[in-house]
Protein: MFS transporter
Organism: Streptomyces pyxinicus
Amino acid sequence: MPQQTSPRPADPALRTTVPATEPTGYRRLFALPGTRAFTAGNLLARLPAGMFGVSAVVMIAGSRGSYALAGAVTATGLVATGLAGPCIARLVDRHGQARVALPATAVAVLGSLALLLCVRYDAPDWTLFAAYAATAATPNTGGMSRARWAHLLRDDPGALHTANSFEQAADELCFMLGPVLASFLTGTFFPEAGTLTGAVLLLSGMLLFTAQRATEPPTRARSKAPSPLRAPGVPALLACFTATGAVFGSMEVGTLAYADAQGHRAAAGAVLALQAAGSCAAGLVFGTLRRARPRLTVCLTAMAALMTLPWLAARLTGSLLALAAALLVAGMATAPTMVTAMTLVQHRTPPDRLNEGMSLVVTALLTGIALGSATAGWTTDHTSPTWTYALPPTAATLALVLAALQPAP
């Protein structure tokens, strides 16, 4: 039966002022019935996103002796995820989270287990690509959680800002802890341990998340609302997300190459984790803001400026410790930028296509990460890892220009 569309606040361009008497804070969020349970399930299901790539590389490279093959397999998975994500999200919007997310998760888990078995029993290389491509059926867990908050807090923009900040901090935490956990499992037990554990966490977390039916957004009758790609302002925001993804991709490759050149390859993961830690901390603080919040252009200006710090640290000091400190500070611009842009996407996307809109954000980010990684690899090979650090501030400046050129909402 068609559901009535609840009124949604007009796009405030992130300058909404929350009244001083309005309850705010993270305790306000988790006092709502069912929010703790769906958040716990979503975090369990989201953690494997930071585990699968590392686990697959270690497992395949260790068995086949080829990092090139391992990288090609994981790249195939990224491309498949970018293509499949919006389609799965569209089905979630139309039929509901539980009805679509659970079977999609089952397909993804079977793909992970198939990859494990193909590696274990020395199946032909093409089977690795096919198995890993099946993991693209993994639903956008972070997007579904944000959709629940958007439904629960549709009349409370201040609390929705806090919820979006928490979700961004959760993303950073998962991508900080996921690779560490995967490395520990594959190194301590057996090469397939990371993939196996990730599959178990994904399935159990999704079962817990989808069991919380009271907080699930209602399905809506199919409307004549345009695709998010045609919604005013959304394509420009997706272009910004693509440029922002290039910041992350180039920074990751540059840090790995720089640490390797310094003879500290094993420390690269810890150094990159500091960037995520800085973003996580900044996201939690950003969520407590009660007054007018900055525009996207202000956030991107801060990102472009702070992303110069790792470049300066690498050029002027040559110290991995100084680079780590610079990455910690530079990461503090990430969460406010992502929260601000994601909130704009929520305001500008038709209500019955919210999951699809946020899945398109993931596709844009993955595209940018791939472009940034490829460009950083070429720059490292033809110049030096130090010059690779010029790419993140350049990509952030491009994102700033794109944001500045978009029409006013």
Observations:
- The mean pLDDT is 84.
- Residues 228-409 form a domain with the Growth Hormone; Chain: A; fold (CATH 1.20.1250.20).
- The chain is about 75% helix and 0% strand.
- The chain has two domains: 34-219, 228-409.
